[in-house]
Amino acid sequence: MDRRNIEESSKLERVLREGHFAFTAELGPPRGANVEKVKKKISYLKGYVDAVNITDNQTAIVRMSSLVTSLLCIEEGLEPVYQMVCRDRNRLAMQSDILGGYAMGIRTILCLSGDHQKFGDHPQAKGVYDLDSMQLAAMVKKMRDEGKFQGGDDIDVPPKKIFIGAAANPFAEPYNWRVYRLAKKVKAGVDFIQTQCIYNMERFREWLKRANDMGLTEKVFILAGITPLKSVGMARYMQNKVPGMDVPEDLIKRLKAAGKEKAAEEGIKIACEQIEEMKELKGVAGVHLMAIEWEHRVPELAERAGLLPRPEV
Amino acid sequence: MIVGTRKPLEEIKAMISPYKKVLIVGCGTCVAVCLAGGEKEVEVLKNELSLAMGDKVSFDGVTLERQCDKEFLEQLSDVVDQYDAFLSMACGAGVQFLSEVYPEKPVFPAVNTTFMGINRAVGWYEERCRGCGNCVLGITGGICPVTMCAKSLFNGPCGGTNKGKCEIDEEQPCAWYMIYERLEKQGRLDQIMDVIPANNWENQRPRTVIQPGYENLYNTSSK
Known about the structure:
The complex is a heterodimer of chains A (313) and B (223). Chain A has 313 residues and is an alpha/beta fold. Helices cover 41% and strands 14% of the residues of chain A. Chain A has 11 helices and 8 strands. An 8-stranded parallel barrel of chain A has the order 1-2-3-4-5-6-7-8, surrounded by 6 helices. In chain A, β6 (192-197), α7 (201-213) and β7 form a beta-alpha-beta unit. Chain B is of the alpha/beta class and 223 residues long. Chain B has 2 domains: 2-115, 3-Layer(aba) Sandwich (Rossmann fold), CATH 3.40.50.2300; 132-192, no CATH class. Chain B is built from 8 helices and 9 strands. Chain B is elongated.
């Protein structure tokens, strides 16, 4: 494995800083040491996205580690966005994994709180939550900018080029607070934001306008989260069962009108329309496509949304 | 107060089955108030056990003012030799202190210590404090994020707020939603505009408190 130069920057950061409309996707690690499955998913995405998010035991279900899956991506020539959640690690484990990942070429990290363990396959587990996502972002910034551990000691070769991301959800209550929470993440040191899946465009535009008015979008790159709806059932599930998700009724009407056979196609059409609109919105720097277990459809979607070819940076 | 719940009878029976004469020791403070281990509960447990275990084990009951105070534990010194084991209905602190004061005597817990909480109504208690050691209630509107947020977030709410409820339980209000609402009403949202830094977790080792002014008495420094 070719380890990259310690001074080389994050590819996602270069894409964004050069003013390209960024395009990232998501890759969920397998529930086992199934390297071939990871490689297959990588093969669908390589060349079609700027970087891919490697989820960290998403929905609190044990999977191959996001660190090692990220390294497999690097080996295959796909830039990873290494997700790290606060549920499973204390500050010692977090920092050592960050240094280890950086040593092997990881340059982009996404700092998340994580889904509560109650939802997963080990609901009896002790959740760690030593830090929250903002404190994690602040810790990574301190490691990068000051070359210091959270505890204050000097780092021997700090992760100087790491690009720090976090999530934002414009659709969860209290709505008024959400833009201030974004501001707090910016204060903590976040460079880019991935939003929760956007379906309610009106509410998203309101949130974005406030972020623009507060000058936040000049300080942080916003990647708009897009998840194509595959069926009416999925849309209803997202609407009723996924906390903090806002799926307007008119989208469900569109899927219904398309008929059962064509609902997935209609979902892709809606996603492409959203992406087209995102390109025009002030303050949106790119899209993050969360096509859950639909990695193989990403190239087609990228093509139809006019996101290809991806820039060489 | 400290809130507890009585252990299932089967579990208690299994612990004390090797003994012939057992003293059930109630505690007259927190666990009495929360109806888990006071005088009345000692009597109930004594009757249940006597009925369940017949002649094999005989039980007496006594309730001390507090089991977390040596002065009260020493009231048992005259009777300790009459029993093979103690069954304590105090919280974990009381059980441990009883064991410490009578180290030769097996002591078993009849109560699961559950949390530090409040009395919502008769028989209804809710957790409010985890004893983390660095209280932030002054900036969070009197609502504890460590205890009341399922993820103990210091800079919430997370993206899982569900119509003002926590994502893990539709009955449980989102702590940070409540914090926001309260601070907004009080005009104090500026309190949470800055990132609350990483917590100094004090509750990761056994702690001792010696209040100022008492250091000389114990020939030590306050921690």
